[in-house]
Design a protein that fits this description.
By secondary structure, this protein is an alpha/beta fold. The two termini are 24 Å apart. It has 13 helices and 12 strands. β10, α11 (243-251) and β11 (257-260) form a beta-alpha-beta unit. Helices cover 38% and strands 15% of the residues. The chain binds (2R)-2,3-dihydroxypropanoic acid (DGY). (2R)-2,3-dihydroxypropanoic acid is lined by residues 52, 74-76, 99, 287-288. GO terms for molecular function: glyoxylate reductase (NADPH) activity; hydroxypyruvate reductase [NAD(P)H] activity; NAD binding. This is D-glycerate dehydrogenase. Belongs to the D-isomer specific 2-hydroxyacid dehydrogenase family.
Amino acid sequence: MKKRIVLYKRLSDQLMQRLQAHTEVTLVEAPAADGLARLRAALPGAHGLLGASLRLGDELLDLAPELEVVSSVSVGVDNYDIAELDRRGVLLTNTPDVLTETTADTGFALLLACARRVVELDGWIRDGHWRAGIGPAQFGCDVHGKTLGIVGMGRIGEALARRANAGFGMQVLYHTRQPRPEVEARYGARHRSLQALLAESDFVCLCVPLSAQTENLIGAPELALMKPSAILVNISRGRVLDEPAVLQALRERRIRGAGLDVFVQEPLPANSPLLQLDNLVVTPHIGSATEETREAMARCAVDNLLAALAGERPANLVNPQAWERRAG
Ligand code: DGY
C-alpha cells in the first residue's frame, strides 16, 4: 500500500507526478492562513509532510501519530521543535546547498540597492522630480573597495565572501565562533569578534541561522558600534535583529541604511513603522525565491521525503537522533 503524504505547498506538475507515483498525496494550500482546518483533517494517517513556513507544534503533531518524516522546503529549520521531533522519532529534512548562490545574490541586491539608493531614486523619478541633472542629494556610496562584515560564515556567508572579494574587490571580515582558515585563504577574509566587525565594516550582512544564541544578536548596543556611514543587511531571520532598535537607529540616522529581507512578523504588516523610513529597502523574504532555485529546493525536498519513506537515510537529514531512534 502507498504511504500517505500531506503537502502544504503546491509543487510543479512534474514533481507532483513523481510524488503521486510513489505515495497517496493530499494537497492543503495556505495552512498558515485559512487552510489550518483542512490540514488538521488531513493529518491522521499521514506518513510524510512536505512544505515550508509552518510552525509544527505539538497540537498538529499529535494529530499525525503515523508520521515518519517532515520534509521542509527551506534551509532554515527554526520553525520546528527538533527535540520534540526527535522524541517522536520523526525525521526532519531540509534543502541546503541548492539555495546558497541565490540567497547570496539577494544579499548583494539589498546591499547595492541601499548603497546606490536604487529604490528611493526609482520613486523619485516616478514622482516627477527628475527635471534637471542630479546632484549630491541623489548620490549614494561606493561598494567596491569597501569592507564587508559577514556575521556567520556558513555556505551563504561564504558565497557572499566570494562575491565581495572576487567581484567587488572588498575586504572581508567575518564573525564565527571558530575561525575558518580555509575561508581566510580563499577570500582573504579576516576573523573578528562581533564588536570589532561591527566597528570596522562599511556593510554588515547577517547570515546566521536563528537559534537561542542568535536571537536579538544585533540590538541597540551593537548598532551603536557601527559606523554612521554603515549599511546593515539581513538575509537570515527577522528575530536575529532587535527590530525596534533598528527602526530607531535608522530614524535617527545613526547608521546610513538597511536592507531587510526578513522580519519578526511575516508578512510585514502594511502599517509597520519600518515602511515610513526612506533609508530602508525591504523585500518579502525572497532570499531563495527564483524560479530555478525554488524548483531545485522542491526537488530536493521530494528526494528527501521519498528516501525517508523508503526507509533510506535522506541526504539532508537535520536530526540524526531521530534516525537512530527509529533504527534502534
Ligand atoms: C530558507 O530556506 O530557510 C529560506 O529562508 C526560506 O524560508
